[in-house]
Amino acid sequence: MVEDDPSISEPLVAGLARHGFEPTHVGTGAEAIEAAAAADAVLLDLGLPDVDGVEVCRQVRQTSNVPIIVVSARSDEVERVLLLELGADDYVVKPFGLREVVARIRAVARRTGAGGGPVVAERTELVAGPLRIDLRTHQVFVDGTAVELTPKEFDLLAHLAADPGAAHSRRDILEEVWDPHWFGSPKTLDVHVASLRKKLGHPEWIQAVRGVGFKLVVDAAT
Ligand code: CA
Predict the structure, then answer these.
(1) Does 158 map to a domain?
(2) Which of 107, 30, 34, 28 shows the shortest CA–CA distance to 67?
(3) Which of 23, 134, 187, 215 has a CA-to-CA distance to 76 between 20 and 30 Å?
(4) What's residue 78's pLDDT?
(5) Cα(86) to centroid of ligand 1, in Å?
């Protein structure tokens, strides 16, 4: 992911990880040209502080067939055509939703994969000790036994498990698991955490981080 605005890149990194991707973030065009060779797909913002994204696209294309999805606030048709001529595979116009980006990445990966090119490496499961989360089927297992979760409980658990041990802020969780423009009661999160603790049978796995939010700590020995 090439994006110089942390207010976009931070939630996007977390969101992509929650959907099973392993995003690498860079903030400049020069870094993007370096890093593109090792990537399975490139999500490229056009407005960068050093090299223009159009030029980054052109340079990456000279040496690599990696799928490129351009992210742009410029929505005029001429530029879209130009970008596709430069070798971009698809584009997303800001503001965009996480689900839209995930769908575009998967679509591009499918298309290029079918042509013998690289396929985006997706994590299909998250494992922490006896906890296993299947991101494809939305199933959760503790010691091999399936645990029935609601869709929101699943998303909450997957969000925490994408980076075990890390403190996830209440705000990030609400934005990522609920909605970017979610203005409901903050108690909703606590209700879901309580329910999740009970269903997993290990209340100590989901720990409150005072003044921040929550973290997932699964002791492999439990
Ligand atoms: Ca930018």
Answers:
(1) yes
(2) 107
(3) 23
(4) 63
(5) 19
Length of the chain: 222
Closest CA to 220 of 208, 207, 202: 202
End position of a domain, from candidates 68, 90, 114: 114
CB atoms under 10 Å from CB of 120, counted, come to: 19
The pLDDT tens digits for 57-113 are 999 998 888 999 988 877 676 677 777 778 888 888 887 888 788 888 888 877 766
pLDDT at position 118: 41
Shared-domain flag, residues 52 and 137 = no
Cα 4 to ligand 1 centre (Å):
5
What are the distances in angstroms from CA 92 to CA 62, 180, 184, 197? 22, 18, 29, 38
Residue 60, pLDDT score = 93
Q: How far is the CA of 173 from the centre of ligand 1 (A)?
A: 24
Q: Determine the distance separating the centroid of ligand 1 and the alpha carbon of 64, expressed in angstroms.
A: 23
Does a structural domain hold residue 194?
yes
What CATH number did the domain enclosing 178 receive?
A: 1.10.10.10
Give me ligand 1 centre to Cα 30, in Å.
14
Supply the pTM of this predicted model.
Answer: 0.56
Domain boundaries, position 210:
125-216
Would 100 be classed as within a structural domain?
A: yes
The reply to whether 83 and 134 lie within a common domain is: no
Is the same domain home to 87 and 11? yes
CB 173 within 8 A of CB 11: no
List pLDDT tens digits, range 146-163: 999 998 899 899 989 988
